[in-house]
Structures are given as structure tokens and as C-alpha cells.
Amino acid sequence: MLDDPTDALSAAPPAGARxxxxxxxxxxxxxxxxxxxxxxxxxxxxHNHARQGRRGLVLVRHDRSGAPxxxxxxxxxxxxxxxxxxxxxxxxxxxxxxxGQHVDYVIVDEAQFLSSVQVDQLAELADEAxxxxxxxxxxxxxxxxxxxxxxxLFEIADxxxxxxxxxxxxxxxxxRFNARVRDDVILRDGDTVVVADTEHSVVESSASARxxxxxxxxxxQVLCRRHFRSGDLGPAAAQHGQLRLS
Length: 246
Ligand SMILES: [Zn+2]
Known about the structure:
By secondary structure, this protein is of the alpha/beta class. It has helices spanning 38-51, 89-98, 116-129, 148-156, 225-230; strands at 27-31, 56-60, 69-71, 77-79, 81-82, 105-109, 132-137, 159-162, 177-182, 185-187, 218-223. It folds into 2 domains: 21-162, Rossmann fold; 177-239, no CATH class. Strands 5-2-6-7-1-8 form a 6-stranded parallel beta sheet, with helices on both faces. The longest helix has 14 residues, at 38-51. The termini are far apart.
């Protein structure tokens, strides 16, 4: 660790600062489809670190609960700091330092929604301040295109870890794609956006004039690549409850 952590992220670190020791922070991205247990894993990692006396910062972008916390489908939750579009993630760490708290690790849930700039800030925290950064998120959107945050993480993370916990397509193959579905038809385009999970979806539109009629009966279904491509939602498609966004 650097002697004075408040200097670690300054624009011009003191000459020789790096010689004080190797920065040991690592940037890790755990990714998988919706409902694969990423949030549960995030909470478990937080718990494991905290139990060893390490101090962490838990961040979330667009949590499914609508409140700043990480919630998991198995019923556990932890308060988290909501990251806004323009938040400089380094500032969140500096605020902790200003209060005399050190930061050993940072956990980010829904990391696919981070901007590429924010992911770069996480890399800086790992490299310059020796902070371990664990990002959790979905790799691809409903069009099977990488989310910006996920794309940047694939480019620069030290470690990429697929999370594949019991999320299967209706056919039994691993589910890898989050299909956006309306009236049992897969939507192939539309505003980029997004998703919190299969029960509560957040649609964030760049177009301000989206009519209410367009907001209803959208749901997400995890599919294997074959059935994502073919659009076959399986025999139970008609039985799925329709999510209404009002
Ligand atoms: Zn399938």
C-alpha cells in the first residue's frame, strides 16, 4: 500500500510512489444471464471479506428494488450506494478516506450499466490504490449485444468469471441470452436498455416520448442461443405471467 492513500489517485502521484510496493488490486468481472445468482454471489463475497475485517464499498447501478441496495432473490439484501450516470467512482473512495476509513475492496452490482469511463476508474482504483474490485453483471442486452459497461470490463478486467447457476433455457440447455418478449414474441430492437430482472424491469428510454401503450406487457426470458435465434419461447410461453410496466 502507498503511505498516503489520499495521494494515490491524484493526477500526478509523487515520483517513486509505485516503488513503495506492488499494487495488488485486481479487477474482476463475474457475468451471467439474469437470475443466475450474481447478486447472491456479490453479497457472499462482501460477507467473506467483512468477516476478515476488510472494509468494502458496495455499489449498485439500477438495483432491481429501486432502492440503493443489493437484493438477491433468495431474500438477503445489503445497503449499497447508488451510482449515477456521472458518478466518479474514485470520489466515492476518496470520501471514505476523508472520513478516515480505508477501502480494501469495492463490489459493484449491475455493473453492465456502468459507463466505460467508470470501468476505467475502477481499474485505476485497482492499479493505483491496491483495491480489489468485484463487478457483477449481465454481459449482453436483449439484442444479444454487449452492454457498454460489460464491454469495457471484457476489455480490461484482470479476471473474467462466468456465473452459470441453474439458469436454463426451457429446453434444458444453459441460458445465455436475455430475450425481451412482448405478447410471446421476441423483440429484436428498440431502445437500448434495460433490465433489472425478470420480475421487475426497468426501461430507461433515451426517447422521452415513449407512450404508455409501449410500456406494457414486456417481460424477459432467458434462452439458449438456438432458441434466442429461432424465437421459440417453449411450450410454457403462454403460461408466463406478463409483466406490466406502468
Ligand atoms: Zn433452448
